Amino acid sequence: MKKLLLLLTFLSLLSCNTGPKQGEPVDNQGITTFYFIRHAEKRTDQGSNPELTEEGKKRADAWVNYFFLKNVDNIISSDYKRTKATAAPLAAAHDIDVEIYDVRTVKALDLLEKYRGKTVALFGHSNTINEYTNQLQNDSIYNPLDDNDYDSYFYVRVSESGKSSGVKESMDFMEE
User: What is the pLDDT of residues 25-54, one digit of tens each?
Assistant: First the structure.
């Protein structure tokens, strides 16, 4: 009975969604939103461009659940197996192609200019996602993530006038 009630509640919430359909432009009222996400757990026996571990694959799937009721306009990834594999489940769930960026040359202000007014999930690395957050906030408060920190990510919103607010969050939605 509880499951039926939960299912009916969920279905009624879905039917109330009056937001844009997939593929329609989203009006963020000039707000640009970035989710800067580190790639999931990587294998340590495959050199400099490893694939994900089984735990990493589970974490990549968990991002689908996190973004279930969120609009995402663009999903971008560095050109490494581990980042592309972390982004792939979310891209498939939202029917969006993963865009590749050059982690060695791209700057946060370039990202802001290109994706202004959009919501973007960017999959990167422990030593780059903090930098993008710092650059958008014009400060240096966020250090690179520890090598074993796959839970942390950064959420940054930038207004049309350029004011920004960012926060370091922790993934607390991994299923045990």
Answer: 444 578 999 999 999 999 989 989 999 999
Helix (H) or strand (E) holding 98: strand 98-101
**CB-facing half-sphere around the CA of 90: CA atoms within 13 A:** 33
This prediction has a pTM of: 0.81
What's the rounded Cα separation, in Å, for the pair 19 and 25?
A: 10
**Both structure tokens of 150:** 């796959």
> Considering just the CA atoms, what is the radius of gyration of the chain in Å?
17
Cα 92 to Cα 56, 62, 64, 98: the distances in Å are 17, 13, 9, 9
Q: With DSSP H G I counted as helix, E B as strand and the rest as coil, what are the percentages for the chain, rounded to 5?
A: 30, 20, 45
Q: Which two tokens stand for residue 20?
A: 């844009």
Tokens for 124, please give them: 């990167």
DSSP assignment letter at 89: H
Nearest-angstrom CA–CA distance, 114 and 109? 9
